[in-house]
Hints:
Number of helices: 14
Order of helices and strands: EHHHEHEHHEHEHEHEHEHHEEEEEHHE
CATH superfamily of the largest domain: NAD(P)-binding Rossmann-like Domain
Oligomer: single chain
CATH topology of the largest domain: Rossmann fold
Strand order of the largest sheet: 1-14-9-10-11-8-12-13
Shape: globular
Strand content: 15-25%
Radius of gyration: 19 Å
CATH class of the largest domain: Alpha Beta
Distance between the termini: 19 Å
Largest sheet: 8 strands, mixed
Amino acid sequence: MQKFDRRGFIKTTALSGIGLAMANSSSMAAAIRPTGNITIGIIGLDTSHSVAFSKYINQRENGFEVVAAFTTVSKDIPSSYERVDKFTEEIRTLGIKVVSTIEELLKLCDCILLETNDGRLHLEQAKQVFESGKRVFIDKPVAASIADVKQIYQLSEGTGVPMFSSSGTRYMSKAQLVREGSIGQVLGADTFSPVSYEPNHSDLYWYGIHGVELLFTVMKAGCKRVRRTTTEKYDTVIGEWQNGGIGTFRGILKGEKGYGGQAFGSEGMAELGPWEGYDALVEAILEYFKSGITPVQPVETLEIYAFMEAAKISSQQNGAWIELSSV
């Protein structure tokens, strides 16, 4: 059995309490204007999220405004180069300025939505944001590889600038109720979402993240080991948690697709779907921009990526159990 060293992966990032500690950073406090709207800049216009988030924010009197954007395009990812012109034009029609460099963008805004479709670009882009001292939300995936995910969190810690990353599935209302204790202690859960793969990204990072994020929303951190089985119709990962709980993620390759699942608790069971859109995620991002308090602790997000990486190793080992050593 091959081990995935979760202890070494997480320990180097000094994660404990990082979100609360960063909330008191003097450099971050200075970045937010004392009066008027908190201004937001977008990095990456090759995803529908950039347009959807901008419309939600700018159509409301909420103290925030998306004012500028910068984009790149990845010539080897169809979903980037086939859509970037369309989304860039939509951003312009919203009255948002499109600038030519990240440096220029950072001068125009207080906080950053890093939305670039290609996770390979996130490390370098995030580095520039951290160096500016501005709070940042990094859309899924955090990065294309486990090494880059780890380095992004190390940079966040090293600069004292908080970051937040999450799929919108985390903020499905029924999942949040379960996380808050509606069915008592969660003993297990089964989640599902569509899955597709992008060759330049660790496989589940690209789209499996949605169902895996939902699984960790209700199960929380503490997965001990995983194993994976893949057919032409489904991609299934079973996780065993340190408290004896069992969680499964089913990635749907063919047939009817959706986002949801079921959680099993000490005081009942609960459905986790359906998908309800991005509004709750955007509200969580705005609250984080305002407070500097990371709504999902880094240890949990890092474990999500460790879970997906261990699943990849399991596939390489013909479905073997891959252990994640305790922190």
